[in-house]
Fold each of these.
Amino acid sequence: MESIVDLFIGNIIHCDQPFTVTVIQKGFVAVQRNKIIAVGHSSELQNRFTSENVRKTLLSDSQILIPGLIDTHIHACQYPNIGVGMNKPLLQWLKDHTYPLEKKFKDAQFSKRCYDAVVKKTLSYGTTTAAYFGSIYTDSTLILADSAIRLGQRALVGKVNLTKNGPADYIETSEESLRETRRFINEMSKKNSELVKPIITPRFAVSVTKEDLKALGEMAKEFNLPIQAHMNETIDGIKQLESRPGDVHKNFTHTHEILTEKSLFAHCVHMTKEEIQKLADSGSAIAHCPDSNFNLLSGICDVRAFIEAGVKVGLGTDVSAGCSLSIMNAMRYAITASTALSFSKKGYKPLNYFDAFYLATLGGAKALSMDDKIGNFEVGKEFDALIVDLDVQNGPVDIFGEHTALELFQKFIFTGDDRNVTAVYVAGNKVK
Ligand code: GUN
Ligand code: FE
């Protein structure tokens, strides 16, 4: 028997092209198993999908169907600290709050409790895909992967490499770090998950040696894996590298093994034109984390400069330097940060809500090299989607009458939260 076709009928909104938001009023998306098999206007539905194997979901006038949101940078193990230690610069914040917390993830039970909570909560906010940093502990990071697999989230999960400049009781030797990364990759492959995969995760240039980086770049190549790290987040971090000539010096753009078309660098607040060009030339991406960049006083990343240079850009919450698990919040901060830049740059065109939505969906998919699978409602892609309802009881705002689909979309971006996300689908499975 043919498998069931799920028809979602109502206001459909997605980016069918980069930076282009398409609104299909009275539209439909047809899904079979995990994949999108047709998209269009509901008038085209006559004579199609007439068999009994059709299940219809009719959206109300206050609902929109959008692609799942993509968090390209989040530290799952920092969730217990969310909202704590803000307004301290990065290196101080790491020492006072973050490393002491991450150390606790040696404990498997604590890991499971925290990781289940992060995955549940991010799914509830509509994050269908996340690129996670775990801790330096392999077994604990495997528990994070298990949480994502069990709860149905799509994820890249990284065991962190930290061999330099960490506290004495939260650090690895280079040999241990590489061996454990290999073990992590091996254990992940045994899980055989379609949705959850490993990612090589050197924390930042301050925390690894040049040799570690080369070896990790080679390991990424050997297993065809993506790479994630922080880059040029703060002036202090860059200075720390410059004061250690002969080491990683400056940043990852000087270590070509780590610059690949599947590399993703968080922050990139303080970059020269040449460094941006290197990212563009290598096909690497950045994770823009504007909330975090304000909280740790890091600066404002000029995202437009990366976009114009042809660098792929996604959005990250960067919990817990970012103080929200919601990519809706990241969209708002991206708009605010860009608008703030425009006040001092003549002729600068700030990002608008269409741009922010692109970065949160198709842009994020490209940044994670997953745009062959997710990011919009293209036929053949997997169905990662949210039903968003702007008129829910006890929602964040009240609704006074009818709105167009585009107005509902704007309200979602500027006022939405998890209460508005009434259903979440990952690869066709309803996970909220
Ligand atoms: N740089 C190195 N580690 C971290 C981290 O955990 N968070 C942020 N925001 N930056 C970092
Ligand atoms: Fe981070």
Note: Residues 75, 90, 94, 98, 203-204, 230, 233, 292, 318, 321 surround guanine (ligand 1) (CB under 6 Å).
Amino acid sequence: MAEFEEVSRKSKLHPKPTGLKLQYGTAGFRTTAKHLDHVMFRMGLLAVLRSKKTRSTIGVMVTASHNPEDDNGVKLIDPMGEMVALTWEEYASQLANAEQEELLHSLNDIVKKETIDMSQEARVIVGRDTRPSSESLSRAVFDGVQCLGSHFHDYGLVTTPQLHYMVYCQNTQGSATLEDYYKKHSQAFLHLTKNAPVHANAQRRLLVDGANGIGALKLRELEAFLQKQLLVALFNDGSTGKLNHLCGADYVKVQQKPPQGIQMEVGERCCSFDGDADRIVYYYTNSDGHFHLLDGDKIATLISTFLKELITEAGLDLQVAAVQTAYANGSSTRFLEDTMKMTVVCTKTGVKHLHHAAQKFDVGVYFEANGHGTVLFSRAAEEQIHQLAKSPDITNEKKHAIQLLDNTVNLINQTVGDALSDMLLIEAVLAVRGMGVQDWDAMYTDLPNRQLKVKVADRRVISTTDAERRVVSPAGLQEAIDKLVAKYQQARSFVRPSGTEDVVRIYAEADTQESADALAHEVSLAVYNLAGGVGEEPKPL
Ligand code: G16
């Protein structure tokens, strides 16, 4: 094929370091930026094949999200704005790992297996975060797309969820602009909050930590559409600090402390985005200086409660379910199941898994504890809500509830977790319910918990089962964890290899912070000793 000759020629400009093996992980490829040029070129090729196969626009996002600034990464976005299908993740790894001389063979193999009609038109859209390496890496993606004779549109600097949304709109409405995105979400927010009570607790000012990333730039753009109905004080806007360094959602969640660079007063409502603005966590400090984190679990609880109440008030019969991962705080799961009487499903880490599980319900609220999540409404549920919202024959009380629900649906980016849209939704719920951040926090009390990382020679030696809650290999590790957990009250712990960083993650929770810290440390030692730890032995906290 003539296109393949061009691939052969151009691929020499994007050579693969011999022997380098990378895996399409939790959220695409992630590693040091200097090892990614060939991967980007090849993901440009793969996006074209996926586009030809699905006869739809496909997205390619250049980002490493929460990882340090020197890393980078890439993920593919499927036609409805969701993460690329699992089989295609395997093709992505196959193509990225093919040695230079095997590349055409590998490409041909995918074309054959998927019976792709190469004469079909393709369309790829590309976005990138603010990392210094992202611009040149996205040029490598363009090269890949072009040498298969296809077109691309470069959205330039966008958040990951914005690109997901653009893919969805391109494939459903035929066009998409950032302005459409801002208009849709801000209008829904303004409708939702227009009659909100002015409540003493519900201060309008929100302090935002932009992680020195793309979220900060895009929040500034969004603000222009909010008619001053949300007053934002933006910190870590990227003008001086380094991306994700001592700031951002991942730092705040894992360290359980405020980011550097934010000036927060007692009781002030604050939130942090991550490096590509697909995660958000909230927090405040109380009068004795104690830091309170409202993570993805608390966000899921706030949103689920709001939706359940509105659904009941509107007289609709829709099942609201929550989807979590093993990282969900035990208290949140108990609250959702016992107090809210909701179905709770646990999946493996990675929003692709949560998203699929949430699709099985009328309303699926999915959030990872790290603040990555959204709400999915089934097509039938959405239709019922829109129809009822238009109906003239309902009581005023029902009308009020259904209009709130209708605007809530419009405010949510259903393609993927979106810090900007989640932030507007949380702000709207607090305003409508007249709640302050402390009222929200008081819904349930988190069990003290700790997350740690351990470096091992090869993290693939750890395999897990039961939605990553139990270890299968190496032998003896799960037994060791079970014995350690049994020493503490209300304790739980699990370990899993990260799919975005070269580490093993450890999670522990228990009745006190001292116990959670001690358990996390002891489990890290077990991992270090039984799974080939490298470097210094983990020290107590
Ligand atoms: C990505 C995924 C998340 C996942 C996180 C950590 O987040 O999208 O679903 O929770 O990585 O994954 P792991 O523990 O496997 O490293 P982000 O915000 O970095 O794209």
Note: Residues 26-27, 65-66, 274, 278-279, 349-351, 368, 370, 372, 498-501, 505 surround 1,6-di-O-phosphono-alpha-D-glucopyranose (CB under 6 Å).
